C-alpha cells in the first residue's frame, strides 16, 4: 500500500497532473515533506529500534551480554570523535578533557517553566511528524463514488483529486447540493478552511509552532554566551561535576568554580572602569555593547532572562491564539452570549453559531468548548468540527465528448487524529501559560525585593554552618548586605540560583561559602566592627 502511494507520487511528478491545481514547484514542495518525513522515520527506526551504533573492544570481560552493554552504554553516554592524525587520549585526565569539550552537555540556565517550553518543542515535533506521515505517506482520506466510469485508475484519481482540491463538510440533516451553483457556493464557503487548515497545512503549521517555541531558547543561549562574561554553561557543568566527585577532589573543584564565578561577576565592571579612563574608548565600548550599563550595575543577565521569559510567555499565548484562528474559530466570550463560532476565512459574516445552551464555559476557548462537545455528545455532524465525512465534487471527466461531474463521499480518518492532537495541545498550552506566568511572577519577586535575595544567600550559608559545627560565632548583617548588594549583585545571585537548580543546594552552599570568604579577605571591615570578628563563615552562624 505504501509502495503504491510512493509510485503514484512519483508518477505525479513525472507525468503532467490531470487536476491542474499545482505546478512542478508545488509538487517538489510536497515531495520535500515526504522526504523529510521518511528521513525522520528511518533515522528514528535506526536509532531506537535497530542498532544505532556498533562498538568494538579488543580485549574485554567474558560474558554474552557484555557486548550489548557496551553498545548501550556508548549510546546513552555519548561518543568522542577524533580528527585525522589526532593523538589518542592516554591518561584519565585527557579523557575527561576530551569528554568535557566534545560531548554535548545538558545543563541549561533555565527553570522548570522554561524546560516545559522545551518539552513543548518535542511534543510539537512529534505531532508534526505523525500528522505529516499520515498526510503524505499513508492515506489521509478515502473516497467513494457509487456509480462512476470504468477504469482501474479512476478510484486513485478521485482520491488524489479530493486531496488536492479539498472536501466540503455537511452538517447533520443538511441537504446535498443539487445544482452546480449550490456546489460553487458551498465550495467557496467551506472548502477553503478545511482544506488549508487541516488536510494540507496541518503538519507544516505544527512544525512552524515547534520552531517558534525553540527560537527563544536558541536566542537565550546565544545571549548567555556573549553577554555573561564567560562560559556560563561550563560553569554550571563544573558545579554539577563537583557535586558528584569524591571529597578529596571536591574542595579543589569548588574553588575553581568560585574563582570562575568571581571572574564573571567582576570582570565586566573592571573592563568598564578601564574604559572609563578614556572618554572616547568608553563611548565606543558602550555603543558597541548594548549591555554595558546593566553590566556595570550587575543586572545584565537578569534583565536578559526576564526578557526571555516575557517572550516565551507571549509566544505561548500567541500559539494558543494561532491554534484557534488556524482552525477557523472566533471567540466572543466577552459578551457571554455566544461561546464559539465556526467561521470561514472567506465569509466570516455567515459563520455558524454553535449553541451554548448546555455550556458552562462560554467564551473560554477552543479546548474547553470542544471538550464540552465531546462530553455532551455533540459530535462533528452538528458542529462540523473535525468532520469525519465530507463530500467532493469531481468535475471535468469527459466521456464520449461530454463533460461529467461526480459526487464523491470521503472519509477523513486523519481528523480523528487532528482532533485529539489539538485538544491536547490546547490544554497543554494553558498549563504552560499558567506555569510561565507563575514563574515570571516568582522571578519578579526575586529580582525586585532585596530581602528575598539576601534570604536566599543566607540560606546557603546556614547550610554550610550546619555541615561544619566548629565554635559558631556571630556575623555582621552589614557584611551580608554588602556581599549581596555590592559584590554579587543581581547577576551573581541569578547565577547562584541556576547553580542550585542544576547542581544541587549542598554544592551551591560550598560555592557560596567560598565566595563569601574571598569577599571578606578582599574587603576591609566596616568601621563598626573589629577585624578579629571576621572569621571564615564555615565557623560562624548568622543572626
Automatic annotation (TrEMBL):
GO terms for biological process: monoatomic ion transmembrane transport. It is a multi-pass membrane protein. It is found in: Cell membrane. The chain crosses the membrane at residues 24-44, 112-132, 194-215, 302-323, 421-449. One of its GO terms (cellular component) is plasma membrane. GO terms for molecular function: gap junction channel activity. Keywords: Cell membrane, Ion channel, Ion transport, Membrane, Transmembrane, Transmembrane helix, Transport. Pfam families: Innexin (PF00876). Belongs to the pannexin family. Structural component of the gap junctions. PANTHER family: INNEXIN, INNEXIN-5. This is Innexin. It comes from Clonorchis sinensis (Chinese liver fluke). The gene is inx.
